[in-house]
Amino acid sequence: MANAERFGGAIGVRRRAGGSWTDVTTKEFAAQVLDIARGLVAAGLRAGDRVALLSSTRYEWSLLDFACWCAGLQTVPIDPDTGAEDIEWILADSAANAVVVETSAHRDAVCQVVDRLPELTRIWRLDGPEPAVEELTALGAGIDVAVVHRRRLAVHADDVATIGYPPERQKRVEVSHGELLAEVRSTIAALPALLRAGNSLLVTGPMADPLAHVVSLCCFYTRTTLGHLPDTGEELASELGVFRPTVIVADADLVATVQDATRERADAEGRTGAYDAASAVATAYGARRGGSLTLRLKRAVADRVVYPKLRAVFGGRCVAVLTTGEPLAADRTHFLRGIGIEVHPLT
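Above: the chain sequence. Below: its structure as tokens.
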């Protein structure tokens, strides 16, 4: 809300819809958040109630995340690939009062068990004949925005903000607003050159991943333009050149897929020999973070002739990749560093 008041015209988010990207200012984003929050209030959700978000990475995920908090609610992120049994268990364990699903398959999985979930009273779907965002916006039209602001201002630092279910923990993890803010501040302090106004960050992978979630929140605090994209290699490779991010958030497998696309492009253009030679130089340079004068000179030549084409596969402006999950293999990390893209594991 503070950014919307002070930097209302700044591009806070770029929204992917219909095969293209649309700029959304911080003022526009905040207005949409408030409209959805009014809908959540109109739906009968009370302060402290829990709303599960079962969806892939997309613009609406962040909208609903903030809208829930504005309405004094707690969010329960669920990985979109979660099986039906685990979905039921998470909804039951968290005592979720409502759930927003993305697909008809997600809705079917919830509907099959809703009779065993007495707390669950609302199911909204993002895609379909009655999209959740539009439905909630219309539902809340009669709610005074002051009601939402009172709820928002009544939230305390030690109140629960989100409830996560990390696969490796096999139990729920409750995170307060204060703890979440501390994580955001710590991440910003660790990456000040990347998370700042004027840069752009494309987050892939499920927002149920706490690391991806925190980094996306950092964008709103630092006025780094945020974009969302589902974690499919084919979509990422084709969209990077359009979004042209400064920073990419992805798991190691997805980063490897994009890196491999640099070799495929070289093969298609008949530049395999030049690519292999430049790749070897990049890997050696990245491993040593420099090296001998001869290596530095070879790297300088490759940086003028070959590496721009390799960086173009990552969008042309990318200077860093933030990896989630398993670490990226050392040789891949060295290669990327050698062509001018740093790798930072999120932990």
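The radius of gyration is 22 Å.
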